[in-house]
Fold this sequence. Notes:
This protein has one domain (40-199). The chain is globular. Helices cover 14% and strands 36% of the residues. By secondary structure, it is of the alpha+beta class. The strands form two sheets. Strands 1, 2, 3, 5, 6, 8, 9 and 10 form an eight-stranded antiparallel β-sheet that branches. Strands 4-12-11-7 form a four-stranded mixed β-sheet, with no helix packed on it.
Amino acid sequence: MKNLKNYLSIALLVLGSGFIFTACDDDAPEPENTVELITNVTLIFTNTADNSTVTARAVDPDGIGAQPIQILDDIELAANTTYTLTYEILDAQDPTDPEDIGEEIEEEDDEHQLFYGFTEGAFVNPVGNGNIDNAADPVDYNDQDGNGCALGLDTSWTTGDAQTGTFRTRLQHQPDIKTCTTGANDGDTDFDLTFVLIIN
């Protein structure tokens, strides 16, 4: 009887181990990459001459819900002036504990890129109308991902003469496909915002 108990114990141990190995099967599906949940975006233009700032905000209170994105401010920049553009990007569904999505984008820089579109002639540097329509068009990126490709959380802009137009910023989520030549239509869009641009 003692030997039978030992055999049963060994059999149960083997069966238990077999279950554990099956539970750790390498064929288990990997978690999907999803677009970021973003409720608040603030563009921060810093004048490189005197460090004064111009901010422009957009909010989407329910994230991916039915409410439309609201543009709260125009972008009002001085003519013939150089600015650095940075961002505050938040998931503030819980206003008492907002999540800094900008940090997450930096951590996943090889999966994200910001693209830009603007009224032709609004800037003397970069020239043109941005790179949303053509990824090879010039934008002055100050930051790169680990592969040396543009990210876009830090860019430079020099305005031209006084005029009114538009300024568009579009964040693409490009897991497993981002290269130095992927464009604004590759991957999924985390946000796509168009502001009134006033240069005076």
